[in-house]
């Protein structure tokens, strides 16, 4: 992380240790370019797998051109959700957010200059389009340092909506897609691309896709069920490891489950031994063999991570684009394979205030 020094030497050493023990590495690169520029960081990767979890328009990483990493085959990029999607309020919100997160003083010109260099409308707009192109493979949360951990899903679909409005139907091109995805009357391909950003792709990147990340025989039964009217906003039932952990439930003192207030409440899967029986703790294979679970008295089921060092961007589902990305250091304009990436901020979004009046 940049706050503790993501120097080229530290990156190289960290990845060497990860290669030895088959564990994933996530990096937040050096916004101020104190130890090197984005080219120096890419060189330090040495074509080794790494999750760049701030490959985005405003959340940090090499200013102003961190988005260049989205064109590297060994880089597994995600962006955090506060800039998802680009709206009329994004810039103003982020300047205040950044000042708080990094303990900056609005009375100090250098602090204000740092904040403004990190919050760039041009790169935020390009981030929207890079997600729609499948060049940014995942959406993450961050938390209390510009992120909103509870809004990953709704902001993912808000981004998809904005791109459909502004860019129209998304042509899947070639690849392994269903015939129906090529029909402009539906938006199936875009839906698949965006849901992969917070399900299977993060699981692949962190070596846990053999157990979670998709609905498949033999995997953990972690499921979220929605009423269609509230999809992406308010789950109806959350099933964890096959047990209902949370659900929309009315007054517990009522004789039936429907009396108001109805809201998400913990169910049987959230208590006692059910927690350990339905949850997993992931460790490196070396850690498991060394007896770490018993030493720490872990109660969850234990699973090893694997294949974290061999995964490439081309392995990520429906989000494997590798465009040549360039960022103008003065205007901040972003181009992918020579095409200017720009879009207008949204003035209204679905899945927003009206869903949270109660």
Question: Mind explaining what this structure looks like?
Answer:
It is built from 11 helices and 13 strands. The chain is of the alpha/beta class and 358 residues long. The chain has 2 domains: 2-207 and 307-356, Metal-dependent hydrolases (TIM Barrel, Alpha-Beta Barrel); 222-303, Urease, subunit C, domain 1 (Roll). The strands form 4 sheets. It has a 4-stranded parallel sheet. Helix 6 (152-167) runs antiparallel to helix 7. It is globular, with a radius of gyration of 21 Å.
Topology:
Layout: H1 8-21, E1 26-27, H2 38-45, E2 50-52, E3 75-80, H3 90-101, H4 109-118, H5 121-133, E4 138-140, H6 152-167, H7 188-196, H8 200-205, E5 223-225, E6 237-240, E7 243-249, E8 263-266, H9 273-278, E9 280-283, H10 285-289, H11 292-296, E10 301-304, E11 325-327, E12 334-336, E13 339-340
Helix pairs in contact: 1-2, 5-6, 6-7
N- and C-termini, Cα separation? 38 Å
What is the count of structural domains?
2
Q: Please tally the helical runs, counting DSSP H or I stretches of 4 or more residues.
A: 11
Radius of gyration in whole Å, from Cα?
Answer: 21 Å
Poorly predicted ranges: none
Biggest sheet, in brief? 4 strands, parallel
Instruction: Give the oligomeric state of the chains in this entry, treating copies of one chain as homo and distinct chains as hetero.
Output: single chain
Nearest-integer average pLDDT: 94
Structure class: alpha/beta
CATH C-level class of the largest domain: Alpha Beta
Net shape: globular
CATH structural fold name of the largest domain: TIM Barrel
């Amino acid at each position: 992380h940049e706050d503790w020094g993501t120097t080229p030497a530290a990156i190289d050493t960290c990845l060497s240790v990860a290669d030895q023990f088959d564990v994933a590495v996530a990096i937040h690169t050096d916004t101020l370019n104190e130890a090197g520029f984005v080219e120096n960081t890419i060189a330090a990767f040495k074509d080794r797998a790494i999750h760049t979890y701030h490959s985005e328009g405003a959340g940090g990483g090499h200013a102003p051109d961190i988005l260049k990493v989205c064109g590297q085959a060994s880089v597994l990029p995600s962006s955090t959700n506060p800039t998802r999607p680009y709206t009329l309020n994004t810039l103003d919100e982020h300047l205040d957010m950044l000042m708080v997160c990094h303990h900056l003083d609005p009375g100090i010109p250098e602090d204000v200059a740092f904040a403004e260099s990190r919050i760039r409308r041009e790169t935020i707009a390009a981030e929207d389009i890079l997600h729609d192109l499948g060049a940014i493979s995942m959406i993450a949360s961050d938390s209390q340092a510009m992120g909103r951990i509870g809004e990953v899903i709704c902001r993912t679909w808000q981004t998809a909506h904005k791109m459909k409005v502004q860019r129209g139907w998304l042509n899947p091109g070639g690849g392994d897609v269903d015939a129906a995805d090529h029909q402009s009357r539906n938006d199936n391909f875009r839906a698949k691309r965006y849901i992969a950003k917070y399900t299977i792709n993060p699981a692949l990147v962190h070596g846990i896709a053999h157990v979670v990340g998709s609905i498949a025989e033999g995997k953990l039964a972690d499921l979220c069920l929605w009423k269609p009217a509230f999809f992406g906003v308010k789950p109806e039932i959350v099933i964890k490891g096959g047990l209902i952990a949370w659900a929309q439930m009315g007054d517990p003192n009522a004789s039936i489950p429907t009396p108001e207030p109805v809201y998400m409440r913990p169910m049987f899967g959230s208590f006692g031994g059910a927690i350990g029986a339905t949850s997993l703790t992931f460790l490196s294979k070396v850690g498991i063999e060394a007896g770490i679970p018993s030493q720490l008295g872990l109660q969850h089921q234990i699973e090893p991570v694997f294949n974290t060092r061999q995964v490439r961007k081309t392995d990520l589902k429906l989000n494997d684009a590798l465009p040549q990305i360039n960022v103008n250091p003065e205007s901040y304009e972003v181009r992918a394979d020579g095409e200017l990436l720009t879009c207008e901020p949204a003035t209204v979004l679905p899945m927003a205030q009206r869903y949270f009046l109660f």
